[in-house]
Specification:
- The protein has a single domain, classed as LmbE-like (Rossmann fold, 3-Layer(aba) Sandwich).
- Helices cover 42% and strands 18% of the residues.
- Strand 4, helix 5 and strand 5 form a beta-alpha-beta unit.
- Helix 1 runs antiparallel to helix 8 and helix 2 crosses helix 6.
- It starts with a helix and ends with a helix.
Length: 245
């Protein structure tokens, strides 16, 4: 399978038509897959806040316990931090799967079963997942598990948005988060355990500023970038990518 074939899949599956430049794609129910506690804020925190302004129901699933982003015996701290970020939002539900950090691939069968049931019960219109070519193994595994779950679930007309964590990805759609950036940065501040090892605030700020700059509009300073595909195109994209020689 050639790289051109993979790109063709992305181009033909650009996602649902948007209402305007930098706008969210309308959704009544949003599912967010976050491999670790903080990925959801880094990748799509501003977009989620915009959805909450639109009365959207959001479920965030944390795939691993994040133990290797901190001392393994202190993994509970990361869960506490995640709860503090979203605890004042009634329309946000958090689910913690607690699979061992870096071992998500080994637990993919169980994770797939849980996610398939969730897709059938919640029936999201929009799913956020990490970019499939992300450098972290758990991020890549999360997106592959999503592909397998979508094939098993009784779900249709769903859109998948792959988000960026700490490094640029292919993006065919960006959401203006200029008015949400201050809140997003305050959320990242709540993930205090991650400030010792990773410069998540400055790296995220720089990436969102880069995405905002691409609009070439004075009114847009910060944005979050996504690769948006309809669910069938997403599954096709993952399949083709795995076959690239």
């Amino acid at each position: 399978m050639s790289e051109c074939s993979v790109i063709d899949t992305v181009i033909k599956g650009l996602g649902k038509r948007l209402n305007g430049i930098g706008k969210i794609i309308k959704a009544a129910k949003v599912l967010v897959l976050s491999p670790h506690h903080d990925d959801e804020v880094i990748g799509c925190g501003g977009t989620l806040l915009t959805y909450l302004d639109d009365d959207t129901e959001i479920v965030i699933v944390y795939m691993t316990d994040g133990r290797f982003g901190i001392k393994p015996e202190d993994a509970w701290i990361r869960k506490e931090e995640a709860q503090k970020v979203w605890d004042k939002y009634d329309r946000v539900k958090q689910i913690f799967l607690d699979f061992e950090d870096t071992k998500l691939t080994e637990n993919s069968l169980e994770a797939r079963g849980i996610l398939t049931d969730l897709l059938n019960d919640f029936k999201p219109d929009m799913i956020f997942t990490p970019w499939i070519l992300d450098l972290h193994v758990d991020h890549r595994s999360t997106s592959i598990i999503l592909r397998e779950s979508l094939c098993q679930a009784e779900l249709s007309n769903c859109t998948v948005s792959s988000y960026e964590v700490m490094c640029p990805a292919y993006s065919n759609h960006s959401v203006n988060i200029t008015k949400k950036m201050e809140a997003k940065m305050s959320f990242l501040e709540l993930y205090k355990s991650q400030h010792t090892y990773l410069n998540i605030k400055n790296t995220t700020l720089s990436l969102n500023e880069f995405r905002g700059h691409l609009f070439r509009l004075k009114s847009i300073t910060y944005a979050e970038g996504f690769c948006v595909l309809e669910q069938d195109n997403y599954c096709e994209f993952i399949d083709k990518l795995s076959n690239v020689q």
